[in-house]
Amino acid sequence: MRRTQITPSSSEWEEVSIVPDADLFSPLSTLHWVERDKLHANDYNPNKVSEENLKLLEQSILTNGWTLPIVARPDYTIIDGYHRWTVAGREPLKSKLNGKVPVVFVEHQTKAEDMYGTITHNRARGTHLLEPMKAIVKTLLDEGKTVKEIGKQLGMRPEEIFRLSDFSKDDFIALMAQGNTYSRAELLTEV
Predict the structure, then answer these.
(1) Residues 47 and 116 in one domain
(2) Judgement on whether residues 150 and 74 belong to the same structural domain of the protein
(3) What does the buried/exposed string (b/e) look like for 141-170 if buried means 16 or more CB atoms within 10 Å of the residue's CB?
(4) pTM of the predicted protein model
(5) Pairwise CA distance, residues 22 & 60, whole Å
(6) pLDDT of 55-111, one tens digit each?
(7) Number of domains in the chain
(8) Cα–Cα distance for residue pair 36/84, rounded to 1 Å
(9) CA-to-CA distance for 184 and 191, rounded, in angstroms?
């Protein structure tokens, strides 16, 4: 059952269709491990991810396990989770997951609802602000984590970590060299 609500939009009023009392638990009650190859991408997702970030997503799944299921329609069209689905088709995840992925199903009535679902899932994840990221990098370095480990786990290049670390260039180079054996010529930073 749907109802219509009139809401202000800019300087005009528009009609918006609302699903009353949506069953918030319903999608999770449909959680299943499904053959990955049964699923297929939708034809409208504007979200693009670099290969570097796909590798980071793969690393996240390998480190943390699969924490967020793919959201799909009953016809196996992906509403959210296209990139998780993508990396699940690559080794080593494909073998480790036995070709399956966790899926919850939603039953939208229209393609517009599918699109709303895709976009709101994408946008709700937000962006990372500079100061909190600096604090995270500082905490990790203070805990003795190496630049290499931070880079691997957070998908950052050393220069990104440097920019967030507030270290001087010389101190950062010394930090990167910790635990590595280099000749004196390689460690020389000033002539």
Answers:
(1) yes
(2) no
(3) beeebbbeebbeebbbebeebbbbbebeee
(4) 0.65
(5) 31
(6) 999 999 999 999 999 999 999 999 999 999 999 999 999 999 999 999 999 988 888
(7) 2
(8) 10
(9) 12
